[in-house]
Amino acid sequence: MGEVLGKVLVVDDDEVIRQLIAVNLNLEGFEVTTATDGQDCLDRVLEVMPDVITLDVMMPCLDGWTTAEKLRTDAATSHIKVVLITARAQDDDRARGLGIGVDAYLTKPFDPAELIQVVRDLAEGVQRG
After folding, report:
1. Regarding beta strands 81-86 and 104-107, do their DSSP bridges make them parallel or antiparallel, or are they unpaired?
2. Of 61, 85, 93, 98, which Cα lies nearest the Cα of 10?
3. How far is residue 63's CA from residue 7's CA, in Å, rounded to a whole number?
C-alpha cells in the first residue's frame, strides 16, 4: 500500500458521479470520504478535515455556492482547497466561483484525468504549504 496523497471529501447528490470521482481518486492513492449534499458536507467536514473538497453546485438542501461560501467564512475550514464541479459553464458562474474563493472550477462532463491532476496539485500545495 502506497503513501496516502491526501484526504478528499467528494460532495455530489448524484450517486453515480460521486462514486466515479471517489473510485478514481482512491485508485490514485487519495483517502476519500463522500457526502450527498452541501449540508452533509458541512456536517462532516470537521471530522474528516480533508485537504481538498470536490463540490457539485446544483444540489438539494444546500447548493455548492452556499456551501463554498460557508467553508470560506469559517476559520476552521477556510484553508481547505475547494474544486467546484458543475454543468454551469457560463462566465458569470465561473466569476461567482472565483469571487467565493474556490481554488478550481471544472465543468461537467469532466475528464477524470483532469480532475485527478487538479486534486493532486491542490493536495500537494497543501502538504508543501
Report:
1. parallel
2. 85
3. 22
Show the cell assigned to 18.
Answer: 460521486
Look at residue 11 and give its three-state secondary structure: strand
Helical axes 112-128 vs 15-27, angle rounded to 10°: 60
Element (H, E) at 34: strand 31-35
Identity of residue 110? F
Rounded CA-CA distance 125/109 in Å is: 25
pTM as predicted: 0.91
Residue 5 corresponds to which cell in the numbers above? Answer: 496523497
What does the block give as the cell for 119? 486534486
40-84 pLDDT tens trace: 999 999 999 999 999 999 998 899 999 999 999 999 999 999 999
| The three cell numbers locating residue 114 | 483532469
